[in-house]
UniProtKB/TrEMBL annotation:
Protein name per the record: D-3-phosphoglycerate dehydrogenase
EC number: 1.1.1.95
Family per similarity comment: Belongs to the D-isomer specific 2-hydroxyacid dehydrogenase family.
Assigned keywords, A-Z: Amino-acid biosynthesis, NAD, Oxidoreductase, Serine biosynthesis
Species, as recorded: Haloferula helveola
Protein encoded by which gene: serA
Pathway given in the UniProt record: Amino-acid biosynthesis; L-serine biosynthesis; L-serine from 3-phospho-D-glycerate: step 1/3
Ranges in a coiled coil: none
């Protein structure tokens, strides 16, 4: 399963220079997903599910990417051990089993597949609501046990027609649940901090301004929010008390959203009729879980919301394609810890990513030490393009000089820069420049400022300005950058010195600062310049400063 990567479409800056990638799939995903990964000639896939945490820790250092569902716990300890890891793909929605901060700190991108299991999960949640309302589970068990007659008396159901349904979390799954409930003639009220009145109108649901308002007088509540510190135990005894007597609770999102002890107490008190749960605070739940003692209006499933062939094929293939494309081309889709950049946006801004990296490396050599900010401005039509990663790329290249060996990358660079006290400031400027589009990078320490700029000519990035002097140079190669008095003979002396040192000159760019009587000379050479050559350059009369830079 390994060979050489096809011609990369992405900027080299996003890829590591390596022959192949190893991907570990540590939770079961569909065969088609595994095939989509393994079909890439450069990707070697190992499917190794159900690993004990200590075994997982032992093998994770060998992998460049990891694919999980909800079982594998990708903790800070895992990220610390996973020195080669660049990406974690979640075949599903919830990422609460992945330590997002640790991933970001270690420069690992985390992606999920947000849409692949929406319908299956909404259908499952809806099925759970119907089951609890009509006692399907307990009645089924009673029939099998020969208690047909008794069960007909015991299992009086709840009709949903006309009942008030509170949907907490009106995202993808919540919205699909609401549509199905409307087909059952339920009155839907929704709470979601990101739900606009226009969207609520479009979905024909009542918009509640708070969870309490949504729950007040509700006959059923269904939860569809992510599990976070803020949403933990969002359904507790106070909120359950707001619901109508005889109400039902449905949860197909995450167990921790409900205080299970409060729920049990509310059911025991008779205020809440029952519950339908696909997820539990602890998974698997203990077999003597207090809620399992209930006899009526209950429906429990073992986290099956996304477990259909259709959903698993969707998320398995999606995650495989996302990881494959990220490793092979740098394309970023559905990332949760950095901006995404799809294939067409990536193709459009790829030359600017290369240019941003070159400007970052240049400023690291020529700009002030101990900078407090890097300012990136986008001029002309570039200002309207998807530049989200250009500034990150420039900042990464700048900081890489201080933190080599892959310690900083486009994922963790905001955190690293913050720790170093460096602000990244971006701006867009519509005013015309000499160039159609211009990318300007300026490094500052207090009042000291140093800037460089570049543009794209054809498809080639060029540096066109250094320290406000116009130049024209390539962005890759070895350069001698000299500040010198603006008088005859200096360029000749530089050429002679380099010739004597057997250094071939590939290109030369000159810029004169007439008002100050000095000039900037940029000479591209075939090989890096040694310390001795640099000393000799600095010794040429009229040379004010000289720096050797490899971009
Ligand atoms: N049981 C399963 O197998 C299964 C399957 C898929 C998803 N899930 C869970 O369902 C959750 C929802 O999935 P989705 O695809 O609809 O996600 P989504 O991102 O489309 O929707 C989540 C919504 O919750 C809202 N929200 C966030 N905090 C909130 C709060 N405090 N109160 C109210 N709303 C809040 C968001 O604004 C968003 O609209 C996931 O986070 C996942 O944990 C479970
Ligand atoms: O968040 C999700 O996508 C669901 O909880 C599905 O989890 P699973 O992939 O472990 O079934």
């Amino acid at each position: 399963m390994s060979a050489t990567l096809a011609t990369p479409a992405a900027p080299s800056y996003f890829r590591r220079d390596m022959a192949s990638y190893r991907v570990l799939v540590s939770d079961p995903i569909s065969d088609k997903g595994v095939e989509a990964l393994a079909s890439h000639p450069e990707i070697e896939v190992d499917v190794n599910t159900g690993l004990a945490p200590e075994d997982f820790l032992k093998i994770i250092p060998d992998y460049d990417a990891l694919v999980v569902r909800s079982q594998t716990k990708v903790t800070a300890e895992v990220f610390a051990a996973a020195k080669k890891l660049r990406a974690v793909g979640r075949a599903g929605v919830g990422v609460d089993n992945i330590d997002r901060q640790a991933a970001t700190d270690h420069g690992v991108i985390v992606m999920n597949t947000p849409t692949g299991n929406t319908i299956s999960t909404a259908e499952h949640a809806f099925t759970l609501m119907l089951s609890a309302a009509r006692n399907i589970g307990p009645a089924h068990t009673a029939v099998l046990a020969g208690d047909f007659k008794a069960a007909r008396k015991a299992f009086q159901g709840i009709e949903l027609n006309g009942k008030r349904l509170a949907v907490i979390g009106m995202g993808r799954i919540g919205s699909e649940f609401a549509k199905r409930a409307q087909a059952f003639n339920m009155q839907v009220v929704a709470y979601d901090p990101f739900l606009t009145q226009a969207r609520a109108d479009e979905l024909k649901v009542e918009l509640a301004e708070s969870p309490d308002i949504a729950l007040s007088g509700a006959d059923v509540v269904t939860l569809h929010v992510p599990m976070t510190e803020e949403t933990k135990h969002l359904l507790n005894s106070e909120r359950l008390a707001l619901m109508n007597p005889g109400a039902l609770v449905v949860n197909c999102a995450r167990g921790g959203l409900i205080d299970e002890a409060d729920l049990k107490a509310a059911i025991d008190s008779g205020h809440i009729a029952g519950c339908a749960l696909d997820v539990f605070e602890e998974e698997p739940p203990p077999s003597d879980h207090p809620l399992f003692a209930l006899a009526k209006h209950i429906a429990f499933t073992p986290h099956l919301g996304a477990s259909t062939n259709e959903a698993q094929e969707n998320v398995g293939i999606q995650v495989a394609e996302q990881i494959r494309d990220f490793l092979a081309t740098g394309e970023i889709r559905n990332a949760i810890n950095m901006p995404s950049l799809d294939a067409s946006a990536l193709a459009e801004v790829a030359p600017y990513l290369e240019l941003g990296a070159a400007l970052g490396r240049l400023l690291a050599k020529l700009g002030p030490e101990n900078p407090d900010s890097l300012r990136i401005s986008y001029h002309g039509p570039l200002a309207k393009k998807d530049t989200a990663l250009v500034a990150r790329t420039a900042l990464t290249a700048l900081l890489e000089t201080a933190r080599p060996d892959g310690q900083v990358n486009i994922v963790n660079v905001p955190t690293v820069a913050k720790d170093m006290g460096i602000d990244l400031v971006e701006s867009t400027i519509n005013a015309k420049t000499e160039y159609n589009e211009l990318l300007v990078a300026e490094l500052r320490r207090g009042d000291i400022r140093f800037r460089a700029a570049g543009t794209i000519i054809g498809r080639s990035p060029r540096i066109v300005e250094i320290d406000r002097l116009y130049v024209d140079t390539n962005i890759n190669g070895h350069f001698l950058i000299v500040r010198n008095d603006d008088r005859p003979g200096i360029v000749g002396a530089l050429g002679t010195l380099l010739g004597n040192a057997n250094q071939n000159i590939a290109n030369l760019s000159l810029a004169r600062n007439k008002s100050q009587g000095n000039a900037l000379t940029i000479i591209e050479v075939d090989a890096p310049l040694s310390g001795d050559i640099m000393e000799s350059v600095r010794g040429i009369p009229g040379v004010l400063s000289a720096t050797g830079v490899t971009l």
